Amino acid sequence: MNPRVGVVVFPGSNCDLDAQKAFRDLGADVVSVWHDEETLPEVDVVVLPGGFAHGDYLRTGAIARFSPIMDAVRSFADAGGLLIGICNGFQILCEAGLLPGALRKNAGLKFLCKWVDLRVENASTPFTNAASPGDVLRIPINHFEGNWYAEPDVLDELKANDQIVLRYVDNPNGSLDDVAGICNPERNVFGLMPHPERACEALLGSTDGAVILRSILASSPSLVSAP
């Protein structure tokens, strides 16, 4: 049975089709979920994709966190479902309190669209188990507010719990402690600013993003529970 991935679409999402294609190319069944829905379909994985949900008014993700679907997304995560937020999706997860910290404007106040190198710090998550600690993944970023920040005690807790999953090799945006991606203590919610769905085809410059997506699919309940 193929893993089933639900990609949530907000007004202003612009990477939802990229995420759908990348997961579908890796063998998943994919369904689109409009933000105004109040329930999720039966899925193994939920994706909050990149873009500019609700035009990024107020703050990035500040309005999207109140979309009707987010109650169902929270319940899904609370039940142990695999939830990934990419770029704008990461911002939404932080605004919703599903991940700690906040995303601020990039150092230098410039929009960044470039390839970056990411070091895998924790390969014992459902999102990175196809990698090894220390592996370097080449994946693009595309953001203006990707500067992750948290209070010192929160950062210390993340370090102690090994929740920093990815770090920038060469920090492009001023993110605290070079953080590029973090997970929750239970390891089933993951947010990252780089776009793995844009690094799944050699013709596009890298297939390193598929390492993350393959990890997710291999960890989905439909495969883990298969005889």
Structure description:
- The protein is 23% helix and 26% strand.
- With 227 residues, the protein is α/β, with parallel strands linked by helices.
- It has one domain: Rossmann fold (3-Layer(aba) Sandwich), CATH 3.40.50.
- The chain has a nine-stranded mixed sheet, sandwiched between helices. A two-stranded antiparallel sheet has the order 5-8.
- Strand 3, helix 2 and strand 4 (82-86) form a beta-alpha-beta unit.
Explain briefly what this protein structure is.
This protein has a nine-stranded mixed sheet, sandwiched between helices. A two-stranded antiparallel sheet has the order 5-8.
Kindly report the spatial arrangement of strands forming the biggest sheet.
2-1-3-4-11-10-9-6-7
Order of helices and strands: EHEEHEHEEEEHEEEHH
Helical element count? 6
CATH class: Alpha Beta
Poorly predicted residue ranges: none
Query: What is the C-alpha radius of gyration, as a whole number of Å?
Result: 16 Å
How many distinct folded domains?
1
Full CATH superfamily name: Class I glutamine amidotransferase (GATase) domain
Helical percentage: 10-25%
Mean pLDDT over the full residue set: 96
Defining traits:
227 residues; alpha/beta; Rossmann fold; 9-stranded mixed sheet; two-stranded antiparallel sheet; 26% strand; globular
Walk me through the topology.
Layout: E1 4-9, H1 16-25, E2 29-34, E3 45-48, H2 69-78, E4 82-86, H3 88-95, E5 102-104, E6 112-120, E7 136-143, E8 147-149, H4 152-160, E9 164-168, E10 179-183, E11 189-192, H5 209-219, H6 221-224
Parallel strand pairs: 1-2, 1-3, 3-4, 4-11
Antiparallel strand pairs: 5-8, 6-7, 6-9, 9-10, 10-11
